[in-house]
Structures are given as structure tokens and as C-alpha cells.
């Protein structure tokens, strides 16, 4: 039977030194970088943004500090559910405060009015084509 995790297990075994002792513990930033490289291009592109990447690393550090096992999806979901309010509050801090409505000062140009560019044609035949 094909095992999708076999290759990863072989790579992990190859990464250990020959004396059998585990190597220096990998930092959270190094682990996240390694995982980002294995993601699909669309998601990888979003995580290359420094602000999003920093937020992601901060959350991972907090999870590690609280003793969450990153191999257990159940533990990670449980941690996120208990800290949901804090995560949403932090996310809302980066959002713009208010979106303003655009208001046009001049009168609205009708389709059959002369074009404001000065060509002498009707607006619908000049600058209004395709609108």
C-alpha cells in the first residue's frame, strides 16, 4: 500500500546524524519556512507577505508556549477555539477603520449629451463606449 508519509519519514531519518543523536532543535521560524515551501503556490504567495508571516509566527509561538502539539490538528483547533476572541481582535487591528463613499461633484453626463472631451460626438459614441 502506498504511504504518503513514507518519503517525509525517510527524509527525517536521513537528516539525523550517523551517531543516532538528534540534531539541534529547529526553531519555529525554520519549521514554518520549511512548511511554507511545501504549500501550494496560491497560499505560499500570501504567506510571503511579511505582516501575515509575522502574525502566523506569533500565533505559532503562542501555541508552542501553551504546549500545543503541532502534529495534532485536534489540539490546534481546540487552542484556536479557546483563543478565538483574541485572534479576531488582533486581526481587526490591521483592517482599515472605515470605507468612505465616493461622491462626484459635477453633474452626471447623459448618454446623448455631447462628450466632455470636446470631440463633438455624443458621449455614448466617444468616451462612453463600453460603459
Attribute tags:
single chain; 131 residues; mainly alpha; elongated
> pLDDT below 50 for ≥5 consecutive residues: which ranges?
18-22
Q: In percent terms, what proportion of residues is strand?
A: under 5%
Q: How many helices?
A: 6
Tally the beta strands.
Answer: 0
How confident overall, as mean pLDDT? 76
> Taking Cα atoms only, what radius of gyration do you get, to the nearest Å?
27 Å
Structural class: mainly alpha
Largest β-sheet summary: none
Terminal CA distance: 59 Å
In sequence order, what are the helices and strands, one letter per element?
Answer: HHHHHH
Helix content: 40-55%
Tertiary shape = elongated
List the helices and strands and how they pair.
Blueprint: H1 6-15, H2 28-37, H3 41-47, H4 50-65, H5 73-82, H6 84-92
Structural features, described:
The chain is mainly alpha-helical and 131 residues long. The chain is 47% helix and 0% strand. It contains 6 helices and no strands. The chain has helices spanning 6-15, 28-37, 41-47, 50-65, 73-82, 84-92. It is elongated. The protein starts with 5 loop residues before the first helix and ends in a 39-residue tail after the last helix. The relative contact order is 0.05.
Quick structural gist:
The chain has 131 residues and is an all-alpha fold.
